[in-house]
Amino acid sequence: MATPMFRFDPVELPPEALKIQGEVREFIQEHKDLMGFSKGEYSREFSKAMGKRGWIGMTWPKQYGGHERSAFERYVVIEEMLVAGAPLSAHYTGDRQSGPNILRFGTEEQKQFFCPKIAAGELAFCIGMSEPNSGSDLAATRTRAVKVDGGYKINGSKLWTSNAHRADYAILFCKMAQEGGPDVDDRHAGATQFLLDLKSPGLDIRPVINLLGEHHFNEIFLTDVFVPDNRLLGKEGNGWNQVTSELAFERSAPDRFLVLFQMLCQMVDVAGPNPDKATAAALGKLISQLATLRSMSVSIAGMLGEGLQPNNESAVVKDLGTRYEQDIPVVARQLFPTEPELEAIELYASMIARSTMNAPRFSIQGGTREILRGIIARGLGLR
Amino acid sequence: MAIRDETRMLLESMGRLFEDKCTKQVADLAETGVFAADLWAAVAETGVALAALPESAGGADAEWSDLYAALRVAGRFSAPIPLAETMLAGWVAASAGLDTVDGPMTVGPVRAGDKLTLERDGNGWRLSGTASRLPYASSAERIVLIVDGPDGEMAVALDGVAGAEVATGKNIANEARDTLTFAGLHISADAAGMLTGGVSRAALYRRGALARATMMSGALEKAMDLAVTYAQERVQFGRPISKFQAVQQNLAVLAGQTAVAIAAANLGIQNLGHPDPEREEVLIAIAKTRVGEAATLACEIAHQVHGAIGFTKEYSLQLSTRRLWSWREEFGSDPEWAVKVGNYFCAKGGDALWPTLTAA
After folding, report:
1. Where do the H-state alpha helices sit in chain A?
2. Per-residue pLDDT tens digits for A116-139
3. A7 inside domain
4. B288 in Cβ contact with B209 (< 8 Å)
5. What is the DSSP string of A176-207?
6. Are A207 and A262 in the same domain?
7. Minimum CA–CA partner of B259 in chain A
8. Torsion over CA of B304, B310, B311 and B316, rounded to 10 degrees?
9. Which of A263, A325, B156, B276 is the most exposed place for a label (fewest CB within 10 A)?
10. Are A231 and A109 spatial neighbours (Cβ–Cβ below 8 Å)?
11. Backbone angles phi, psi at B236, to 5 degrees
């Protein structure tokens, strides 16, 4: 066939992954009070406990605080935690993308300084990509760095920065200021990444409250923020290549279809052991979607373990996974109508409130649906 | 783990064979009711149809996963032959100690509501009841049916349709689907046997469902290949339509649904022969449910991308889409199988959902 086909080889989890599955399930039982729907939030204490178990930076080299475990073992730990609604936010960005990007592009000193602390669950990262006028179009970044004695001076702003108010560092994406204005021919020219200490003078971090009334987002203003030479990540001007790699790490994670898992369980319980035909069919359809997404995700873990870069496959799973998750509250309200209320005593009513209000972000964060389909189209050779 | 080398080799050789022997002319001729005998002979010569049988029964002890992989290739080429039916007929016959033949075979019942009974008649048996919409029954040299005997389920082997009242029919891809009615047809003692080794009417039904799901995943590969290729060739407004974002986004969805269909079918195939028949059944139910959903979405897009040409008999997209629209209803539709998935998990309750889904 002429058309490139995406590869999802059927894979079974190896014994060591099944072993760790049991260990994680025990750990979850021990930390039951921290788990639950919508509790999947921020707990430094929980991140440290996971670090102690060796479940952060699992595939990284031991010399940088990692544990040299397989991609399958890492996959299992993450999916079990997501399913339980564990509070992963404090370490998840570092584990998923900041740490791997430092290992890939960082200096020896940076790897030794950052990675063991991330793996211990002691150092929290956030993502410094989006800006007021640079969302899907990352190359439109206006934040600028200027070389000064001993480092860089950075001015600009970042937006939608989740957890910046409680993280320690950000990987900041910006451009080197160019003599005579920006290069109009190469939109990626001068792109550069920095490891930005969020306690640096000149930073102003302000909350952006989301539509649920919660504080996750922030806007960051940078005014003459100094970053020393040893906190340049990779090379000046190589930032586009590096941020693309960071996004690939972000998109290959299994967290695009397990956020609402507990709500699906709740729907199964509300349906009861003898559901009518329409209810059984609707739930059966959702469960079939989930089972297939999970097998595709395990397949991606296998490819990551082989050192492949399944960017197209990851885009497919994220696109389908977010569609599935957005369908959950839609199906729920059709099967079991209720008036949504965030603080409702009835668990189901609060779940439907939270999931309905959260649903729009699923197909926006980490690459909009349109961007992902553009990636898939490129993979098909259409662009 | 991953795809076995044997499977890959089989897929490549089946692909070459179909490329050569299963042309649009062959598919078109078969739709007029002429059995594709040359294509069948070429496929039979590879031995793939009976390869799952033990060597003692003329097979090669092949892995079922490999044979299902071959069915995906057959689906990709819209092969108008009873390959899945012959594989399953051989499997049922061998379990009941009945002979197989090298020619095309079919198997049944393929419909959940059919009733077939076998009563003692001297040394032999009498067969009564109806087997609806048996694939290629009129062309089959042997028909293997699972029937209710006095002591449980049995298999009978018939040499063609002689002795049955035949109502010919076809699906919307013009594949023969013949309804056979038996009114006390005499069956000799050596043409009937008790089923063994976990073979049952329910097991046949689910393996048939998985065969259709797998063939559908192949047909979707073809529809996607045609749509992507066509979009790059068709020029409108001064450029290939593949350059329009609206078309690209649709093709991306088509590619996603195709990938999902293959993954879902593989999930069923991975669990074929699972020691717990309930688990085999629910994973096949998941596969047929998800592939059916994918087919519905994907056919719509494949046609939309093609415009009017895709709606013609001359252009080959319809060979795939008419099969997809037929096969998604055969051996149980996706909504029917979805009910089974829902019932299975609702009976266990929400807390059991994840441990059950992830059980080995």
Report:
1. 15-30, 44-53, 71-84, 89-93, 99-105, 108-119, 239-251, 261-271, 277-305, 311-335, 347-362, 369-379
2. 999 999 999 999 999 999 999 999
3. no
4. yes
5. E--TTS--SS-TTTTEEEEEEETT-TTEEEEE
6. no
7. A6
8. -140
9. B276
10. no
11. -140, 150
pLDDT digits (tens, 9 = 90+) for A360-375: 999 999 899 999 999 9
CB contact at 8 A, B81 and B120:
no
In this predicted model, what pLDDT tens digit does every residue of B149-196 receive, in sequence order? Answer: 999 999 999 999 999 999 999 999 999 999 999 999 999 999 999 999
Contact list in B for residue A11 (CB cut-off 8 A) is 1-2
What are the tokens at A370?
Answer: 């349109």
Q: Whole-angstrom Cα distance, residue A282 to residue A44? A: 39
Residues A112 and A141 occupy one common structural domain = no
Looking at the fold, whether B340 and B233 belong to one and the same domain comes out as yes
Predicted local confidence at residue A35, as pLDDT:
86
Quote the CA–CA distance of A364 and A95 in Å, as a whole number. 21
- The whole-angstrom distance between A188's CA and the closest CA on chain B is 22
Name the residue range of residue B12's domain.
1-81
How many angstroms separate the most distant Cα atoms in chain A?
Answer: 72
Structural domain including A52 reads 15-123
Task: Give domain status of residue B172, yes or no.
Answer: yes
Its ipTM equals 0.96
pLDDT over 60 (residue A332) = yes
Residues of B in contact with A320 (CB under 8 A): 256, 260
Residues B249, A264: C-beta atoms closer than 8 Å: no
**Residues B139 and B68 placed together within one structural domain of the fold:** no
pLDDT score, position A34: 86
Q: Is B64 on the interface with A (CB under 8 A)?
A: no
| Same domain (yes/no): B48, B188 | no
The pLDDT score that the predictor gives to residue A38 is 67
What's the full length of chain B, in residues?
A: 360
Q: Are residues B224 and B310 in the same domain?
A: yes
Residue B189 in contact with residue B125, Cβ under 8 Å? Answer: yes
Residue range B204-224: mean pLDDT, rounded: 98
Let me know if residue B335 belongs to a domain: yes
For residue B350, give how far its alpha carbon lies from the nearest alpha carbon of chain A (Å).
4
B190 & B119 share domain: yes
Instruction: Kindly state whether residue B97 falls inside one of the protein's structural domains.
Output: no
Token reading at A240: 């586009």
Q: Among all chains, which residue has been given the structure tokens 């096949």?
A: B284
Reply yes or no on whether the pLDDT at B1 is more than 50: no
Whether B238 and B343 share a structural domain: yes
What does DSSP say about strands A203-209 and A215-228: parallel, antiparallel, or unpaired?
antiparallel
Q: What is the mean pLDDT of residues B227-246?
A: 97
Q: How far apart are CA A244 and CA A250, in angstroms?
A: 10
Domain count, chain A: 3
Nearest chain B residue to A265, by CA: B350
Q: Which residues of A touch B231 (CB under 8 A)?
A: 382
A134 and A119 share a domain? no
Indicate if the pLDDT at residue B8 is higher than 90: no
